[in-house]
Structures
1.
Amino acid sequence: MNARRDSILREMGLGPIWRLRGAPGDEADAFDPANEQAPPDTSVEEAPAVVAPVVDAQVRPREQPLRAESPAPAPQPARERSPAVNADAVGGMGWDELTQEILACKACRLCEQRRQAVPGVGDRQADWLFVGEGPGAEEDARGEPFVGKAGQLLDAMMSAIGIKRGDNVYIANTVKCRPPANRTPEVEELAACFPYLARQIALIRPRLIVALGRPAAQSLLNTDIRIASARGKCFDYDGIPVVVTYHPAYLLRNPMDKAKAWEDLCFARREMARLAGGEN
C-alpha cells in the first residue's frame, strides 16, 4: 500500500483506506465506508433515467479554468437564449475557440441562472477522462468541475489508483452550466450541451472514459443505464472504452457503496493497463 496515498485519504477523512483485492503484494479489503460521514454536498446526484438524443460522436472540447483567487462573477440576470448548438460548427473547433463558445453559450435555459459556464479542467492529451453530470454551487462560482466535497472525494478516489487531477487526467461534465438547485439536467439540456462534450472527447482522444453517474453514462452511451447492472463492464463510445460507476456526490450520501466504486476503479485501472500494454 502506498504510504503517500494512505496519508492523502486519511487527511480527507476517508480512512480506513481503500485497498485493492487480489493484486500481488497489495492485497487488502476495500476501505470500511461505515466510518465515512457524508458531509453536505453541492454536486448533482445520480439521477433518474434520461437519454440524450443521438449526436454526432465526432464532435468534442476542453477548458481553461479560471484562477481560484479571482473573485467569482456575480449571478447574471436572465439571458436571452440563442439557437441550438451547431454540432457541425463545434466539431471543427480547437480548444480556445471551443472554450469561448462554451463560456458564451445560451443554447438552453441553464444559462439563465449560472454565474459562469464550467468547460472542464486537466491534461488535454490525457489517457483518463472522467465525466460527471454538471457543476454544483462551488463549481459555478470557481469555474472548475469537482471542487466541492464531491470533488475532494473524486481526488481521493483517483489518488487511490495512482492518478491525479491534471496529470494525464481530464475532468468534464455532461452539462457545462449549473442546473438550478443542483437538479438533474433535463433531456433537452443534455442534448444541447452534448456537442461540447463530444468535441472535448475528440480533441483529447482518451484511452478510457469513466462515466460518473447515470446522466453521464446515458449521455455518452445514448441508452438507458442502471449503475448496478452496468458495473464491471466495458462499454464503447466512438471506439473508446467506457467504464460506469457511481457519482462521488451519490457516494457521499450512500457511503456503503464506496466499496463498489472502489471495485469499479480497480476494474478501470486493469482495463487501462490492458490498453497501455501493461504500462499503467
Note: The chain has one domain: 3-32+39-275.
2.
Amino acid sequence: MKSISFQGNISIQDLYKKGIQQNVELKLSDDQSVRNILPLRIQNFEIKRLEWKDFIGKPDEESPWIAHCYWNNSYEYYFIQDREQVNYREQSPLRLPRIPLQQINQVNQLNIKTENVRTSSANKIKRLPTPTINHSPQRTVNRSNSSSAIRKQSPNGHKIKLSVKCKFLEKSWAKSKKDELLLEHETGHYLIGCLSALEFKKKVESSDVTKSNNHQQQIRNIFRQNLKEFLEIEKDYDDETNHFKDVEKQKMWNKKLKEQLLLYECYFNH
C-alpha cells in the first residue's frame, strides 16, 4: 500500500544525533485529531490551537470556498563577529490563495481511494543529560505571536542567533463556523506552516553558516528552498484529502502532522 506523499522531514535518526538514547518507543495513536495536542510549545516557538473565532477576516463572498487559512514565516538573526553585531530579517511573501480550497456543497468530487498508513507518535523518550545553557533575552519580531531561537558557535568565534516565526494571519476567513472537520483541516494548513518554520530552524542549526563568508545569502537560500518544499506539501495536503472531503485521507494526514510535531518537540526540547 502506498502512503501519503508527505513522509516528514524529521526522523528518529535525527533524535539519535541530538544525543537522545535509542530506547525510543513509538505507539500508534487511535486519536484521529491533531488539535488535541495543541497548544504546543517547542522551546520558545508557540503553536496555537485554532478556533473558529480566530478566522476574523472578511470572507470573499464571490468565492465558492467555505474557509481560507493564511500563514507566513519570517526569520531574523544576529551575526556577531569581532564584537560587531549585524541584524538581518526576512519573511515569506504574502501568499496567494490556495487553489482549490473547500467548495460549498462539493462532496466527493474526486474518486479517491482510501489507503492505510502506519504513522506514529513519539512516546516514552529517554534523554541523555545535557548541560545547562544560559539563554540571552530574545528579541521580538513584529507581526508574530511565536518565536524560537538558536545559537551556534564556530571555532573562529563567530556567533549566530536565529529567531523564526510562523504567524496565523488575521485575514484568514470562514463563511461557516460550525464544521469541526473543516476546522481540523484548516488547522492542518497552519501546522504545515509551523513545521516549515521548525524545519528551517533545524537546517540552519545543523549547517555551517557561521563559517561562511556569505552567511546572509546562504540562510536566505535555505529559507526560500525550504518554503518552496512546504508549499508543495500544502498542495499535496489539499489534493490528497480532497479538501477534507476524503475523511480517511484526512485522518492519515492528521496522524502524520501530529507525529512530526512530536518529533520536533523531542528534537528541540530534549
Note: DSSP finds four helices and ten strands in the chain.
3.
Amino acid sequence: MRIVVINHVTLDGVMQGPGRSDEDTRDGFAHGGWAAERAGDDAITRAWGRRLTASSGYLLGRRTYQDVLGHWNNTPDNPFRDALNNAPKYVVSNTLTEPLPWPNSTLLSGDIPAAVAELKRTPGNDLHIMGSGALIQSLSPLGLIDEYLLCIHPLVLGAGRRLFTNGFGPITFTLADATTTATGVIIAIYRPHPRPEPASEDNDLRLEY
C-alpha cells in the first residue's frame, strides 16, 4: 500500500483547524474554520471523494483520531459516520491503550516506523493521512510517505501550526498534477523525489501522538 497525505493548507502553510472554530485551539489559535467557506467547492469534493472511496483506510495520529471520530460520531444524522466507522483505521499513539473507542481501529505503538513500513508492504489501495501533523513530520524524513494531495487555499493566516515546519527538510517534490478550482483553491499532487535517505535508528521522531 502507498501512504498518501490529504490535507487543506493555507498559502503560508498552516494546516491547523481548517474545518471549524473549535477544531484545534492549541497555542491560542483563533482562526479555526478557515477552510469552511469553501466547503461547497465541488472540485475539492470530487478530488477527495475519488481518493477516499477507493481507500484501504486511514493512518491517523492520536489527536486527529480522537477529534475527527469524536466529532462525526457525536453529530446527529452525520452522513460520514458509518463510512468512517466501517473503514480500517490505524492509530499511531504512545499514550492510547486498547480497546480503542471506534470500530475497526488498530493501535500502532512502540516502533512506529517499523509498523508503518509493514503496513506499506501489505497489498491494497492507498492508506490516507488526514490532519496528523506530528505523524506526517515524523514519517516524511524516513521516506514513508508516497504522495501529498494538498488543497492550497488563497489565504494567509500568519499564525498556526504548519504542515512543513523548521527542520522538516530538505525534501524535493515533483508536481504530479495541479488544478485550480472556481474558488481559487489549488489542488496539487506532490511526490517526494528523490526519496530521502532513511534516518538512523537514533533519529528523534518526535512521537507526540
Note: The beta strands are 3-10, 57-61, 89-92, 105-108, 127-129, 147-153, 173-180, 186-192.
